Amino acid sequence: MDCYITFFYGVIIMKKIFKFILFLVVVFGIAGVSYQVYSNVRHKTKITNVNKNKKVSIVALGDSLTQGVGDPKKAGGYVSRTKQVLNKKGYKHVTTVNYGIAGQRSDQIDKRVQNNVKGLSSSLKKANIIVLTVGGNDLLQSLQSNALVDGKAKFNSRMKQASITYQAKVNRLMNDIRKENKKAPIYVFGIYNPIYVYFANVDVINQYVKKYNQITSGVVLRNKKAHFVDITPLSYGQYKSKAQKEKLVESSDEVTFNPLDILKLDDTKGELNNYISPDDHFHPNDKGYNYMTGRLVSQLFRFNDWN
Fold first, then answer.
1. What is the pLDDT of residue 28?
2. Distance, CA of 36 to CA of 183 (rounded, Å)
3. Where does the sequence pass through the membrane (predicted)?
4. What angle do CA 62, 64, 69 make, to 5 degrees?
5. What does the pLDDT read at residue 257?
6. How many CA atoms lie within 13 A of 237 on its CB side?
7. What angle do CA 54, 59, 61 make, to 5 degrees?
8. pLDDT number for residue 163
9. Which of 22, 32, 182, 218 has its CA 20 to 30 A from that of 143?
10. Alpha helix locations (H) across the chain?
11. What single DSSP character describes residue 240?
12. Domains of the chain, earliest start first
């Protein structure tokens, strides 16, 4: 009898978890994820033979993170900030083109490259730095379509297949970008979990954010002059230390917590992650885009394959 009680209890808990996941992905979504504020970027690598009078053309493409959704300055997120940082470093001839469109998956971004939508392919040909944000909406679609699948094993099986499909799509996207420009380095941002600070115990979201980042970084590393830009720390915001993260986990209960309570929490305390916009609770705010800019600029000077 005890084993049957345990079994049925487990089924009930599993259904609650999957309903909870569905709520999370529908309401909040997954945003496409070492702290270093862009205004204080330091580089250990000494750069030599730098021509600061050269023309630097940055072409950015991707989803809402490239478009700059959540940026309170309405300035285009990390794209315009990167130009500002390079200008301050003495690069006076920097141009940027922003081809970010909110909500787009890897295959939709790729279609724009293939069809030269709004001159995207033409711009890529002229770029000497290419920046891409991808993966967040692919993961969101997978979670949404599988959140109510009956059983953990079946859910994981379908998510595994979705991961394989994503890998093929992002690989095709990288190949198509490279067809347009064989020389310019490509910098690809990872994704993060924007609601971690609310639901630190919901391991399934972190699990697949990590998985998709591994897929993206793997594809990137197999391409010449391509670099992965990790922004996972945005998930944790100001909760940087091990003790702070453990406290978040201790205060989170994904089984008994009512997801609708988060709406009341938002009304009284706003966004709990200091790097995320209070307007939608998953895109970066000013501080978040500064962080993304810092990570990108750090990688630009680390590899220095555009200078």
1. 44
2. 28
3. 20-38
4. 145
5. 37
6. 22
7. 165
8. 97
9. 218
10. 2-27, 64-67, 78-88, 106-114, 120-126, 136-146, 152-180, 203-221, 242-250, 261-269, 286-303
11. -
12. 2-303 (3.40.50.1110)
- Distance from C-alpha of 242 to C-alpha of 248, rounded to nearest angstrom: 10
Name the token pair of 15. 């259904």
Q: How many residues does the chain have?
A: 307
> Are 57 and 128 spatial neighbours (Cβ–Cβ below 8 Å)?
yes
What distance, in Å, lies between the first and last C-alpha atoms of the chain?
71
If DSSP states are collapsed to H, E and C, what string results for 5-55? HHHHHHHHHHHHHHHHHHHHHHHCCCCCCCCCCHHHCCCCCCCCCCCCCCC
pLDDT along the chain (307 residues), means of 10: 39 46 46 40 49 94 98 95 97 97 98 98 98 97 87 93 98 98 98 90 89 98 97 95 89 52 51 92 95 98 94
